[in-house]
Amino acid sequence: MKYDYLIVGAGLFGAVFSHEAMKAGKKVLVLEKRNHIAGNTYTEKIHGINVHKYGAHIFHTNSREIWKYVNEFAEFNGFINSPVANYKGEMYSLPFNMYTFNEMWGVTTPAEAEKKINEQREAYHIDEPSNLEEQAISLVGEDIYEKLIKGYTEKQWGRPCKELPSFIIKRLPVRFTYNNNYFNAAYQGIPIGGYTEIIRKLFEGAEIRLNTNFLDNREEYEGLADKIIYTGPIDEYFDYSLGRLEYRSLRFESEVVDSDNFQGNAVINYTDRETPWTRIIEHKWFEKMGLESSSEGCLDDGKDEKKTVITREYSLEWKPGDEPYYPVNDEKNQELYNKYCDLASQNNKVIFGGRLGEYKYYDMDVIIGKALELAKNEF
Ligand code: FAD
Ligand code: UDP
Questions:
Q1: pTM recorded for the entire structure
Q2: Mutation test of ligand 2: which of 154, 156, 279, 363 has the most ligand atoms closer than 8 Å to its C-beta?
Q3: Minimal CA–CA distance to 42: which of 187, 252, 278, 184?
Q4: pLDDT tens digit string along 67-93?
Q5: What is 3-79+187-244+327-378's CATH number, 3.30.70.260, 3.40.50.720, 3.40.50.150, 3.30.70.100?
Q6: Of the residues 279, 287, 337, 359, which is catalytic?
Q7: Is the model's pLDDT at 284 over the cut of 50?
Q8: Alpha carbon of 172 to ligand 2 centroid (Å)
Q9: Of the listed 133, 248, 337, 359, which one is catalytic?
Q10: Protein residue whose Cα sits closest to atom 36 of ligand 1
Q11: CA 207 from chain center: how many Å?
């Protein structure tokens, strides 16, 4: 065999695994069907601003080891994600915290906020929340549910909140402190220079073929290596022989605006049902927040302070051929995925990894952890 490992997909999972494999003296070949590396973490410089081409990516983790690992490949700034919700022109702090409760009800203490939420919860007589609507009302009351959750969630998932599982909302913090940090994470930031640079460094020394779809020529590629790490969709690898897994898809509309400040924050969520997009990202604030008046800032070569790049994000029902972004982890799809796993376990040569290979919505820190774990098992 010419290579020890054939790695399908030049995203974060493939990059970390490749790096570790090369460190262990293995020879790898990487195939990527897109015309660039870095998968969905890909950033591209436009007017000196690192634009997150596949949606906002904020690195956050509670793992010291993973934070240390990723810092070997980039310096991180101190960005803390604090999105703001726009409900028909009313602005609210996120995640739900004392600032939000004050903006919504004028309350100023945790006791007042809890009293207000309890009153609204009791009016609904919910003992054990059985869907997202009940879960949301139990956590934050009816007013916040109606203005900040219902419209956004129904746009995001394309289904009524009553038909969605409650766990979706559980990952959002609810705090009785004045704290707008969106994540409960010990470490957080944006890599200075963009994510693509991290992935480029991880792949240093690897042979990479871009614009190359493994499935177009699978027999030939399979013959090139002892083992295959497959980070594409698991159902596609098996020619959908057991049926198709479902996803939610996204559409990104980017625009260069002649202004130095379009919306005053990196992320604004539009939480009403009528606005067609779910959020607008203003990319420069991932790198410049806290450095507004500094002449140096973080915008590097090609910087043009009079321009800003924004992206509107729309959530779409996925259909075959669309880019798969969010796995739909309901029972039906999970059952189908498990059947694909049974098929996969009969094949010793191929290992499925990453967000699409494992059909799970993994954050970047989890992906790094999974790829390191696999590398440890392999070498
Ligand atoms: P991918 O990045 O999808 O890489 C897989 C690669 O395989 C792709 O480049 C694809 O083109 C390629 N491929 C597939 N099939 C084939 C084939 N047959 N032949 C060749 N190549 C193939 N995580 C966070 O931690 N923080 C965030 O703020 C955050 N925000 C996100 C926002 C959005 C909108 C999305 C969609 C994800 C977000 N994530 C975030 C998650 C993050 O993107 C993932 O954790 C990470 O990108 C997963 O890496 P991966 O290598 O598994 O997958
Ligand atoms: N959510 C909401 N209003 C908001 C932000 C989030 O109702 O302003 C809900 C929504 O159901 C979403 C879930 O919380 O799917 C998780 O939010 P998160 O930001 O983690 O979702 P992401 O878009 O990053 O997957």
A1: 0.95
A2: 156
A3: 252
A4: 999 999 999 999 999 999 999 999 999
A5: 3.40.50.720
A6: 279
A7: yes
A8: 7
A9: 248
A10: 325
A11: 27
